[in-house]
Write a structure and sequence with these properties.
Elements lengths: L25 H4 E2 L60 E2 L6 H8 L6 H9 L5 E3 L7 H15 L1 E2 L1 E4 L18 H12 L7 E4 L13 H21 L3 E6 L8 H10 L10 E4 L7 H15 L6 E5 L34 E5 L17 E2 H9 L1
Parallel strand pairs: 2-4, 3-5, 5-6, 6-7, 7-8, 8-9, 9-10
Antiparallel strand pairs: 1-11
Helix pairs in contact: 3-9, 5-6, 7-8
């Protein structure tokens, strides 16, 4: 996606404006990325792909996200029939010990923001991203996360993010050099899943942003995604794999469901359902309604459900469509596997709160001033 995942690969290439809590500067306000795996660097999902701005100068600002241009309000589908649906996973979600927020908390015990950030963000479980194409190490790195969760009897959330043509050539270009290489990378990713429960958020924006691809390229990508789902679930039958549904302000449910069906999201051999709102701000209520419409249009077994990123949606999306660290946002619902909502399997923190989109800090870095604003709103 043009801006949505644009900050994964080029973090640090564009300097944002630091809204520092004090005059301590970046040394006290930002934390570097963890070594185990790439952590979330996503900015909000766009509605329509556009060419990205150059990020060659340190003073450049991220280009505006097309998410500000809302799509037509999705047409409501017919009321869903009552269906039986099993829960996503048992137990509690896993908090991986290597993350930018934990690094900041460990090294800034005297910071006046420490207690708020530590208690309201750092203590919450969040997804672990694998955003670099590194086939030689990915199995061990995934296994480090899944085995850590299994040892505690908790459920980790992992995000493979290496699809070729990622971000339609925008800020977050990169990933595997081709689909054959991607298929092989997924094989190695799957080998690290272990045998315990794990949630896989498969390739954010890979389906919702497919409009930028030609028909042939889209078909090839969707075939690789369907294969990825099959490989992941075959490697670990307890893995639950969710496919990209964008968010409630993007594609209409019928259009999104048609693409998801082509990508294998309707088949229980590949999929356990869909995910939405990754790194965005749309309210949980809007996402619940949208995801149910997508699931109804998708068809498939009654076991298919949805997971929603609630990390920064406590105040909903800004009225002006601002996507880059917009002011006035706050943390959403805490991560849980017990939502109390039919067909909604989990609320997750896929985007780690406090990791900047590039305006309140350098793109992709944990910025304490931003985290404090989110946690204290």
């Amino acid at each position: 996606m043009v801006v949505a995942a644009s900050l994964v690969v080029v973090a640090g290439a564009v300097a944002g404006v630091l809204a520092a809590f004090d005059d301590g500067g970046r040394a006290s306000d930002e934390a570097g990325p963890p070594e185990v795996s790439a952590s979330p660097r996503l900015a909000p999902l766009p509605a329509v792909p556009t060419p990205s701005a150059s990020a060659t100068t340190a003073s450049a600002s991220p280009s505006p996200s097309p998410s500000a241009r809302r799509t037509t309000t999705p047409t409501p589908s017919k009321p869903a029939k009552k269906r039986e649906h099993r829960t996503a996973a048992a137990g509690r979600l896993y908090r991986h010990p290597d993350s930018q927020v934990l690094e900041w908390v460990r090294s800034h015990s005297g910071d006046p923001r420490h207690a708020v950030i530590a208690s309201r963000i750092a203590e919450q479980p969040a997804a672990v991203w694998f955003a670099d194409y590194s086939p030689d190490t990915v199995t061990a790195r995934v296994a480090a996360v899944t085995s850590g969760g299994a040892a505690l009897g908790r459920v980790p959330v992992v995000v493979p993010y290496a699809i070729p043509g990622r971000d339609c050539g925008g800020h977050s270009l990169g990933g595997a050099p081709g689909l054959d290489a991607y298929d092989a990378w997924i094989d190695r990713f799957a080998a690290g899943l272990g045998s315990g429960e794990v949630i896989v958020v498969l390739e954010p924006d890979s389906v919702a942003q497919a409009e930028c691809l030609s028909a042939g390229e889209r078909a090839d990508r969707f075939a690789s995604l369907a294969r990825a789902g099959r490989v992941l679930k075959a490697a670990n039958p307890r893995a639950r794999v969710y496919f990209d549904a964008g968010h409630s302000g993007w594609n209409a449910p019928g259009k999104q469901a048609a693409w998801l069906r082509q990508a294998g999201a309707g088949s229980p051999k590949s999929s356990d359902g869909i995910f939405s709102n990754v790194s965005n701000f749309h309210t949980t209520a809007d996402e619940v309604a949208y995801d149910r419409r997508v699931l109804d249009a998708l068809g498939g077994p009654a076991s298919l459900g949805a997971v929603i990123d609630t990390s920064r949606n406590g105040n909903g999306a800004p009225a002006d469509g601002e996507w880059c660290d917009p002011a006035g946002r706050k943390l959403g619902r805490t991560p849980t596997l017990s939502t109390g909502e039919a067909r909604i399997d989990a609320y997750l923190w896929v985007k780690l709160p406090g990791e900047s989109d590039g305006c309140k800090g350098r793109p992709g870095t944990f910025t304490a001033s931003y985290a404090y604003d989110l946690a204290s709103s």
